[in-house]
Design goal:
The complex is a heterotrimer of chains A (about 375), B (about 600) and C (about 220). Chain A is mainly α and about 375 residues long. Chain A has one domain (about 65-380). Chain A is built from 16 helices and three strands. In chain A, strands 1-2 form a two-stranded antiparallel sheet. Chain A is globular and about 65 Å long. Chain A starts with a helix and ends with a helix. With about 600 residues, chain B is an alpha+beta fold. Chain B has three domains: about 45-150, NADH:ubiquinone oxidoreductase Nqo5 subunit (Beta Polymerase, domain 2); about 195-240, no CATH class; about 245-590, Orthogonal Bundle (Cytochrome-c3 Hydrogenase, chain B), CATH 1.10.645.10. Chain B is built from 21 helices and 16 strands. Chain B has helices at about 30-40, 65-75, 135-145, 195, 245-250, 255-265, 270-285, 290-320, 325-345, 365-390, 390-400, 405-410, 415-420, 430, 450-475, 495-500, 500-515, 555-560, 560-565, 570-580, 585-590; strands at about 45-50, 55-60, 80-85, 95-105, 110-115, 120-125, 145-150, 205-210, 220-230, 230-240, 355, 355-360, 445, 520-530, 535-540, 550. Chain C is mainly alpha-helical and about 220 residues long. Among the domains of chain C are: about 5-80, NADH-ubiquinone/plastoquinone oxidoreductase chain 6, subunit NuoJ (Four Helix Bundle (Hemerythrin (Met), subunit A), Up-down Bundle), CATH 1.20.120.1200; about 90-120; about 190-220. Chain C has helices at about 5-25, 30-50, 50-75, 90-110, 125, 155-165, 165-190, 195-220, and strands spanning about 125-135, 145-150. In chain C, strand 1 (about 125-135) and strand 2 form a beta hairpin. Chain C is extended and about 80 Å long. The chains are: A mainly alpha (about 375), B alpha+beta (about 600), C mainly alpha (about 220). Chains in contact: A-B, A-C, B-C. The interface of A and B includes residues 307, 370, 374 and 376 of A.
């Protein structure tokens, strides 16, 4: 009896967590290489291509380099906090892996909690501690400013981040990630009825991760390297690890909440959870593959953003968060509430689809010429 | 035999060297007449015309200089181009000449004022007339020890505060060494702008050092800012970290040996510096480079200008977090450097020009390569424009950031893209054309507002205009003929002749050992550098070494205005503004 | 001893120990960190009692929001070097007495039989109505929405309680918070000095033209 309980509640979840952990860490390591190669592709250069086949051994070389570098601790730093800084953001991020279903249940989820989504949000919100502690403990003005900027940014963007999810919850009626995914398989992706929430979630998730165009805390040209200016070797690598892990967590979340997770079905037709489960191991693998593909798409968009956008100024960032994102998210909640109340969720799908069409039309219409400098000749002739 | 020179050593039919004769500029009568008109207009007793100069020149009594400058400014000479000293230690009646040069954009003419001052005398400070003269006066004080009465902050600017003596005085021994330490140097604390003086705040003000080693300064600049939150309420700058005493070094080298030093001024567009310096010496010698050399100079200058703007735009965008533009734009820049390399073997610091022409001829595929580059560049410029100029984030970051008004820009002595971004269409290539720029069809881009956005617009358009010039230059083709003048007193004979002919060997020996010896006198020549008017003022005493070489670096007054531009802005704005000014430390610190 | 009890013992000990350390640490940042640890341990205890929602909210609000602001303030005032000697407050006796009194009161109130009120009607709190998408009973093969009663969803239960029985206190509390927020903004807002205001306006006027041009070009 005890043995069976231990198996069920301790050993088996642990194995699943370790599996998720290893897979995610492998993705993190690979992302390092993928990001640099992709940036190279976008920026018309090569990226790392020397170590191993197409530079693939870079994935191994980088950790080795980090391990072998000298670990420099500034003499005037606050030792305990300086040490804790890189560690703290890792713990909640790893804990989140227990809660995220990477494929059809019960195989690919370590712990199914009925408020999983809330718990994920709670855990990711503690990721900010590492950054402010690291920034403060380094005893460096740039680090401190980076840390404070980061804290303000993450606390601000947590609000639209959370609010944008409320619409999804109202439609799906659950905080359980598995049931949210099942609901989408039986109807359609939440992307369509919650198109506004999707954009708010996506932008706030970029801001939460301090990625371009919201990478002000580590804006290299202003604050040298922000909160991790004084960090070196493995401690620096831990910050990077936490950032990439958080990126993966957020990509998983957006996949689960808006893109139907591991399912590929509309109106209950197609690869729903039941369908996948009934297919056994093969179904599990297909589900995992679908999930990872969707997730990697968002990882790609992260990198794409980094290659495209300049970064915001701090006040502009705050304006965007408080004056645009939060009112928009609140408005979305009200509108969704009205639709749910009158029982017309279906209508929202069509509205969302129309919005997407309009956006697509806007993107692909004839480009607008940019503003150009006048020439002295033109000015003379105009007057 | 290359097209280097046909070298007719025997018999040489050209003019004999005139190294002990005074220098007579072209159009001297016209210049003198114009000088008289200006003197009549100013009608100040302290003003005395100096005839036979390359621009209207006056010697002014030191006590009247502020009055003269004020009335000159009021009569249109609104840009303070330069202020520097020249040391004549054995002269009676005042050892130093302090030279002021002004430019009038309306009348398109320059004027030079000279003030004689002895070692123990001082000159009234003209900071009140032209804001830009603040740093120039500090520099003159630093280099010559000339004191300016009433200057608000007369301390050393390029040399360390513990430096002893004044480096550009003739009796200063350049071999001396000083121990310079951080101890005993006053800490730099920026003055808080009176606008923000009475703002009370609950938090203490933070003073932050940006630089001298900071990722955004792209060189060794130091900016000290006092912050109230993220707003800069006071700023000060410290320069001189890259000071290599270009001007002192030039005095101990022959005229040809100075050319490599000019590369190191604005190393992003080195050939323009080469051209400017060589053309100054050519002006003094009264010679002109052959048409082929001029054509190559013009084409490479324009390529260098594009490359300079590419660096400015690219690094500026990196400072704002837009990485792609930087990497993407560096691709054509590499190609431009490759073109330079194919001409002379060096990429960044080519030292390609010589007095009287070019070091070597351009390769046979020079025009084809240029055409390839000219075909390729518009796509890169358009792509970058598409990426940034319609991006809301970018526009929010640059519009209204680090603005400077037209009056202030003129008063500081801005030139180049930064001045044109305030709406003044001043471009040396149009105002006083050289290398035949007047024969090309192109426009001077201008913009309003003088902010970072305007500077972006101007630079992007300037690259397009440069491409226009280049396309026309390629269509005309390289003129045939030698690339260096046929004058054994200026140009070295080819190596084969040196090994085989006595006369060539003698000329080679004479030129190497005794150098070019321009006539006695002084001349100023200006070209349009990447950042604005790049001027060289050369004083010759008829020997092989220049008596004084003064470079007018366009960055100097621009960076001087920087603290004023960033006060009231935030740090990210200041960084974005700094990038758009394109401060090149090598040029700034000479 | 069940595994759950063992976990409770460990986590509870850490919670008590770290809450003592909160008040005994000299460095305010360290105090704040131990307070964070306390919050997390309490959240674990909530989860163990089956109150996942409260646990998650505990972490989200206290650990993710309030403690960050605490740290923010502590870092901004930057009290790094405090005297190292250990001093006990002059009022320690009084403080101890008050603490003891509160503890006794707490034990008196929270004791078995009082806390677990068996008479309470919990059906409202633990069951909710829900529309689910299932196969129809009448016509097998077609799918339809069906209203069902479901139990054991404690986030729904909390929501139900807040918006039905405790609606008025809930709204009053939120109104208070709103008033407090407005007050904080009014106090925190810095008056622009006369010159600043002047330059700001001038600046806006100067830029209007270009902004408009850009917008026109973008919308053309």
């Amino acid at each position: 009896m005890t043995q069976a309980l231990l198996m069920r509640y301790l050993l088996w979840p642990l194995v699943k967590f370790l599996g998720a952990f290893i897979v995610v860490q492998a993705i993190v390591a690979a992302m390092n290489w993928v990001e640099r190669r992709l940036l190279g592709l976008i920026q018309a250069r090569l990226g790392p291509n020397r170590v191993g086949w197409h530079g693939l051994l870079q994935i191994v070389a980088d950790p080795i380099k980090f391990l072998l570098k000298e670990d420099i601790v500034p003499s005037s730093s606050e030792k305990v906090a300086y040490f804790l800084g890189p560690m703290l953001p890792l713990i909640p991020t790893f804990m989140v892996y227990c809660l995220i279903p990477f494929g059809p249940p019960p195989m690919f989820i370590a712990a199914r909690v009925n408020v999983a989504l809330l718990l994920v949000l709670a855990l990711t919100s503690t990721g900010v501690y590492g950054i402010i502690l690291g920034g403060w403990a380094s005893n460096n003005k740039y680090s401190l400013m980076g840390g404070l900027r980061s804290a303000a940014q993450m606390v601000s963007y947590e609000v639209p981040f959370g609010l944008s999810i409320v619409g999804v919850l109202m439609i799906c009626g659950s905080l359980d990630l598995v049931r949210i995914v099942d609901y989408q398989a039986n109807n359609a992706w939440n992307l369509f009825p919650q198109i506004v929430a999707f954009f708010i979630f996506f932008v706030s998730m970029n801001a939460e991760n301090n990625r371009t165009p919201f990478d002000l805390p580590e804006a290299e040209s202003e604050l040298v390297a922000g909160y991790h200016t004084e960090y070196s070797a493995m401690k620096f690598a831990f910050f990077m690890l936490a950032e990439y892990s958080a990126m993966i967590v957020n990509s998983c979340l957006v996949t689960l909440l808006f893109l139907g997770g591991w399912t590929m079905a509309i109106d209950g037709k197609g690869l729903t959870t039941q369908q996948l489960v009934s297919m056994g191991v093969l179904g599990g693998i297909i589900g995992l593959a679908i999930f990872l593909t969707k997730m990697m798409f968002f990882m790609f968009v992260y990198i794409w953003f980094r290659a495209t956008f300049p970064r915001f100024r701090f006040d502009q960032l705050m304006d965007l968060g408080w004056k645009w994102m939060i009112p928009l998210a609140l408005g979305n909640i009200v509108v969704t509430g009205v639709f749910v109340l009158i029982g017309q969720e279906r209508l929202m799908y069509w509205i969302g689809l129309a919005t997407l069409g309009a956006i697509g039309f806007h993107i692909f219409r004839k480009p607008v010429p940019a503003v150009k400098a006048k020439t002295a000749h033109e000015v003379a002739h105009a007057s | 035999m290359s097209t280097l020179t046909k070298f007719s050593a025997i018999p040489y039919t050209g003019p004999a060297p005139t190294n002990r004769e005074p220098y007579v500029p072209a159009n001297v009568a016209q210049t003198d007449a114009r000088g008289e008109e200006i003197a009549a207009k100013i009608s100040n007793n302290a003003l005395q015309q100096e005839r036979g100069q390359d621009m209207p020149s006056f010697s002014v009594d030191r006590n009247a200089i502020v009055d003269v400058l004020t009335s000159l400014r009021n009569s249109g000479f609104t840009i303070p181009l330069d202020l520097f000293g020249v040391d004549y230690p054995r002269r009676s009646g005042g050892r130093f000449d302090v030279v002021y040069q002004l430019y009038s954009p309306q009348a398109n003419e320059r004027v030079r004022l000279k003030v004689r001052v002895a070692e123990d005398e001082s000159i009234p400070s003209s900071v009140g007339v032209f804001k830009g003269y603040d740093w120039y006066e500090r520099e003159t004080f630093d280099m010559f020890g000339v004191k300016f009465e009433g200057h608000p902050n007369l301390r050393r600017i390029l040399c360390h505060e513990m430096f002893q003596g004044h480096a550009l005085r003739k009796d200063y021994d350049p071999a001396q060494r000083w121990l310079l330490t951080e101890q005993g140097v006053a800490k730099l604390l920026p003055k808080i702008d009176p606008k923000f003086e009475n703002v009370d705040t609950d938090f203490e003000r933070v003073t932050l050092n940006l630089g001298p080693s900071h990722p955004a300064t792209h060189g060794t600049l130091r900016i000290v800012v006092t912050l109230d939150g993220e707003t800069i309420i006071g700023a000060d700058t410290e320069i001189g970290y890259l000071h290599r005493c270009f001007e002192k070094m030039a005095e101990t080298h022959t005229y040809q040996q100075v050319i490599p030093f000019t590369d190191r001024l604005n190393y992003c567009s080195a050939i323009i510096n080469n051209v400017g310096y060589c053309m100054t010496i050519e002006k003094m010698l009264g010679i002109e480079a052959p048409a082929r050399a001029q054509h190559i100079r013009l084409m490479l200058s324009e390529f260098m200008r594009i490359s300079d703007h590419i660096i400015c735009i690219g690094t500026n965008l990196v400072d704002m977090g837009a990485l792609t533009n930087f990497w993407y734009l560096f691709q054509p820049r590499e190609e431009i450097l490759g073109l330079v390399e194919s001409c002379c073997g060096a990429r960044l610091l080519p030292t390609y020009t010589r007095v009287g022409g070019m070091a070597v001829d351009a390769p046979a595929d020079f025009l084809a390569n240029s055409q390839r580059l000219v075909n390729m560049l518009p796509k890169f410029i358009d792509d970058v424009e598409k990426l940034i100029m319609k991006n809301r984030i970018f526009l929010d970051r640059v519009i209204g950031v680090c603005p400077i008004s037209q009056e202030d820009a003129l008063s500081y002595g801005f030139t180049g893209p930064c001045l044109r971004a305030t709406g003044v269409p001043y471009d040396v290539r149009k105002a006083s054309p050289y290398l035949g720029y007047e024969t090309y069809d192109w426009d001077v881009p201008i913009a309003d507002g003088g902010d970072t956005y305007a500077r972006f617009l101007v630079r992007l358009e300037e690259m397009r205009q440069s491409l226009r010039i280049l396309q026309q230059a390629i269509d005309r083709g390289l003129p045939p003929g030698p690339v260096i003048v046929d004058n054994p007193y200026v140009a070295l004979p080819p190596k084969e002749r040196v090994y085989n002919e006595m006369e060539s060997l003698i000329y080679h020996f004479k030129l190497i050992m005794h150098g070019i010896q321009p006539p006695v006198g002084e001349a100023y020549f200006q070209v349009e550098g990447g950042n604005g008017e790049l001027g060289f003022y050369v004083v010759s005493d008829g020997t092989k070494n220049p008596y004084r070489v003064r470079v007018r670096p366009p960055c100097f007054p621009i960076f001087e205005a920087y603290p004023q531009m960033i006060t009231g802005q935030t740090i990210p704005d200041a960084i974005a503004g700094l990038g758009s000014l394109n401060i090149i430390a090598g040029e700034l610190d000479h | 001893m069940t595994p759950a009890f063992a976990v409770f013992l460990i986590v509870g000990t850490i919670a008590v120990a770290s809450s003592i350390l909160v008040i005994s640490m000299r460095n305010p940042v360290h105090s704040a960190l131990f307070l964070l640890l306390t919050f997390l341990c309490v959240a674990v205890l909530f989860v163990m009692k089956g109150a996942e929602f409260v646990g998650a909210v505990q972490v989200l609000v206290y650990a993710g929001g309030i403690m960050v602001l605490f740290l923010f303030v502590v870092m901004l005032i930057n009290v790094r070097h405090l005297p190292d000697e250990k001093v006990l407050s002059n009022f320690w006796k009084g403080g101890f007495a008050v603490g003891l009194g509160v503890f006794i009161l707490f034990v008196a109130v929270v004791r078995p039989g009082v806390y677990h009120d068996e008479q309470l009607d919990k059906s409202r709190l633990t069951s909710v109505k829900e529309r689910i998408w299932t196969e129809s009973h009448k016509n097998p093969g077609t799918y339809t929405y069906r209203r069902v009663h479901r139990t054991n969803a404690n986030s729904e239960a909390v929501g139900m309680a807040l918006y039905t029985d405790y609606l008025v206190p809930f709204e009053v509390a939120s109104l208070f918070l709103l008033v407090a927020m407005i007050g904080a903004i009014v106090i925190g807002k810095r008056e622009l000095s006369a010159t600043e205001e002047e330059t700001a306006q001038q600046f806006i006027l100067e830029r209007v033209e270009t902004e408009k041009e850009v917008k026109e070009a973008m919308s053309a």
